[in-house]
Amino acid sequence: MPALEVFLVFLRLGLTSFGGPVAHLGYYRAELVVRRKWFTEAGYADLVALAQFLPGPASSQVGMAAGLLRAGWPGMLAAWVGFTLPSAALMFAFALGLSRWGGDETAGALAGLKVAAVAVVAQAVAGLWGSLVTDRLRAILALGVAAALLLLPGAGAQVAALLVCALIGWRFLRVKAAAERGLPAVPVSRRMGAALLLTCGAGLLLLPLLAPLGPGWTLLDATFRAGALVFGGGHVVLPLLETGFVPAFVSHETFVAGYGAANAVPGPLFTFATFLGAAQTVASPLLGALISTLGIFLPGALLMAGALPFWSALSARPAARNALAGLNAGVVGLLLAALYNPVFTSGIGGPRDLALALLAYAALSAGRLPAWAVVLGCALVGWAAL
What we know:
It contains 16 helices and no strands. By secondary structure, it is mostly helical.
């Protein structure tokens, strides 16, 4: 069963993908492109590029799109459940009283996981550079984007830089049609895609009107709005969730504690909403967690599935291929900047960490070990060295 295969693949990714959304994209590439060959480098880069332009959790959106392309709608659901379930379960448990999570006992292992993320992202950047940065202009675009985003970080700067790369690619690059399509056939019609995009917009308009009907609707409105309006994913969602939950549902102290825990578990940071839904006191913890989890991920799913048929058709046109080539070079630059900040700056604290990162990179690239094995190995080394 294709959907079961997708679920098992993404469940393993959900259990081992530490380091935030950029690192997740590295784990995805190692599993879906290098190991399983579900996608070409160009096809995977197309998904990453599209996710950068859409609001929502970028890594989860890439995973859901991969599941959709691999096994249809059941595959999309299987990819989301598999990748999200471990993190959501841990955050739900923390909300119910696991106050010792993230203490001194796990500090060494968490440090090792951050080091592993450095190696995984570095391998992803190297692999994408080799396949997508194939001439001098694309190298200039990639390095220029990296330099610009190191100096001017933020979601707005990311979108602006990628738009400039797409414009330069459209004007100056000439890309031949590939022998095979970058992405497999999208099992979503343009009519269905338009309906999904309109559904997301309708949710933004209608849910505030339904919020007064009860706490469940209020939770759904707060999380749906956060998921639909956040560009850049991950940590950028923090102020939107704080506006929706503090002090109406949780205290500031509880909010901060949950955010700290969200940074210590694998999988998407957006499961912070799971914690908030379980920690509120106006509805049952389980119901609140379910509503909040669905609410924060639903807009991203609607937007990605709705945009895919238009993106796939657009990328087949010569002018669009040229723009996409420039855009993909910019995505490599975006990942290169993220490799330094926040991945390297938060993961490498000294020579010992750097040595472990270099060994992990060698194990991934030369030793061809799977990413999950390298991640677990670094966690054990960090725990033992504490």
